[in-house]
Design goal:
Chain lengths: 150, 114
């Protein structure tokens, strides 16, 4: 069974700029839609307040794993921790890894997220049911926004 | 830990317990072609009794790996792995979430490039 996600996106900006947008927690928060409480430090936990419309009541908790300047950034977290009543800290987190490579255009960013097989199956189903509509709408908003600005 | 969370862990353990049996795995292997089979068909060519096959199928049905439907007086069983489907749907959801977030990152970074 496939239990890993891999995404690639090419960005027309130098590696150094993309690195900043990823690892400066304030800039990270701009596009990830979260207000982190401080900077990312390898080996340190960090939390923040979600700023995504409709999810502002949620907090995000991550554990920063590795920071290798302009190459590699990783953290663990609990994806879809959308029920404030549930203590997700007892569940196995997933691992998110960002890799940067220079290209002719600018930067190739590869994101992988792995470890989904450890998430309780019932919660996977709940997350899907409770959030499908919300994310489908969100996708449309973003599509509209991106096509307007490009 | 709430009762609900406890039961989700239990449900997962039940799936693994159901799969941890040679007979049930061989039944699943038969059912994997997506066809619906009667208990008689699944018993044929095995050393098992109909009762034993029925019992194993019910175990798989309880953890939603197979689905039983009725045709007249007969029960037919097919492979319908809900836990596997839920995993795939969940990954698709998280995958979409990344698409959206990375599109925002691209816009964010490229908007201040000369």
């Amino acid at each position: 069974m496939e239990n890993q996600i891999e995404k690639r996106i090419e960005i027309a900006a130098p590696v150094s700029r993309v690195w900043q947008a990823l690892t400066d927690s304030r800039q990270f928060g701009e596009w990830f839609r979260v207000k982190m409480d401080g900077p990312f430090v390898a080996g340190q936990p960090l939390s923040g307040q979600i700023t995504h419309p409709g999810y502002e009541h949620l907090r995000m908790e991550i554990m920063v794993k590795a920071i290798e300047p302009e190459k590699f950034f990783s953290y663990t977290w609990h994806p879809y921790a959308i029920d404030p009543k549930v203590d997700y800290t007892k569940e196995e987190p997933t691992l998110v890894e960002f890799r940067l490579q220079p290209t002719a255009v600018g930067t190739l960013l590869t994101v992988t997220e792995s470890g989904f097989d450890k998430i309780p199956s019932a919660r996977r189903a709940e997350a899907f049911k409770s959030n499908d509509g919300g994310w489908a709408q969100q996708m449309k908003n973003i599509e509209a926004y991106v096509s307007k600005t490009s | 830990m709430s009762a609900k969370r406890h039961s989700s862990t239990r449900a997962k353990a039940a799936v693994f317990a159901a799969l941890g049996d040679e007979t049930r795995l061989s039944l699943l292997a038969r059912l994997c072609d997506g066809q619906r089979y009667s208990i008689a068909e699944l018993t044929e060519g095995t050393k098992l009794t109909r009762q034993a096959v029925t019992k194993h199928l019910r175990v798989l049905e309880r953890v939603r790996m197979v689905r039983g439907t009725r045709r007249g007086r007969e029960s037919l069983f097919s492979f319908d792995p809900q836990p596997v489907i839920e995993m795939r749907e969940y990954l698709e959801l998280v995958s979409k979430q990344w698409d959206v977030a990375l599109a925002r990152l691209k816009t964010f970074v490229e908007s201040d490039q000369p």
